[in-house]
Amino acid sequence: MTNYFDLQAFLPHLAALLGAYILALPIGWDREQEERSAGLRTFPLVAIACCGFIQAAEARYGEHPDAMAKIVEGLITGVGFIGGGAILKLKDSVKGTATAASLWATGAIGTAVGLGSYAVATVIAVFTVMTLKWLTPLKAEAAKSED
């Protein structure tokens, strides 16, 4: 095994990590604008970490689907744990579930990019942003009508 920096091997990884980062930015921006517990820094970091774990594992375990499945399973569990930290129970209400779900979706974006499923990652990112932007006013309207 040679220990040298291979620019040709590096550039695809850089492109994937940058793609995961860019796809997560609008989600983080939305959460930041809504002043949620996780925001502009957290979401891109979750995406690139998931992407990085997949890419690093593929170099070692890419030919072993069971090993890769365990890596993905670990990412799903780990990101779910991070999301769980965003959820707060306050008296009669629960806050942070949209942020937690957004973190989970962002982990899926990074994982999809790491696996080379750019279309899946893009669709998840678009639907997540649409859900946060378009359904938030509807939720507020529904809450008003309950009062």
TrEMBL record:
Domain MgtC/SapB/SrpB/YhiD N-terminal, chain residue ranges per copy: 17-139
Keyword Cell inner membrane part of the UniProt annotation: yes
Sorted UniProt keywords: Cell inner membrane, Cell membrane, Membrane, Transmembrane, Transmembrane helix
Transmembrane segment boundaries: 40-59, 71-90, 102-129
Pfam families, sorted: MgtC (PF02308)
Keyword presence, Heme: no
Signal sequence interval, chain numbering: none
Any single GO CC term annotated in Swiss-Prot or TrEMBL for this entry: plasma membrane
Highest taxon in the source lineage: Bacteria
Primary location recorded for the protein, binned into one broad class: membrane
Compartments, as annotated in UniProt: Cell inner membrane; Cell membrane
Membrane-topology annotation of the record: Multi-pass membrane protein
Cited PANTHER family: MAGNESIUM TRANSPORTER YHID-RELATED, PROTEIN MGTC
Family: Belongs to the MgtC/SapB family.
Protein name as catalogued: Protein MgtC
